[in-house]
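hiii, so i know i said id send this last week but things got crazy w the move. better late than never?? heres the sequnce for the chain we talked about at the cafe, plus the structure i predicted for it. fair warning i was half asleep when i ran it
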Amino acid sequence: MEQLGEKKLPTQCPSCNQLLEVARLICPNCSTAVEGKFELSVLSKLGQKEQEFIIDLVKSSGSLKTMAQNYGISYPTVRNRLDAIIEQLKTLTEK
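okay and structure toks below
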């Protein structure tokens, strides 16, 4: 869950809605910075809800039955959510 005041990395341009790329990384300890053009990982290109779903899926050892119980929804609903994420991942990795 997002903590109060915690910022999330934006993944889409607020102006044209294209996927953003990372241009600068900085060490919070010594302030060393690395600049360049870095792509976001495929999973970070998913929305927050999709990322949380995948994390929950891994925590439940990939059991959709457990996911359905934890979310309080039906197995087919969990399956449909997973199928939608799979389609998003296919689209993101085709580029």
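btw Helices lie at 48-59, 64-71, 75-93. thought thatd interest u
miss u guys!!
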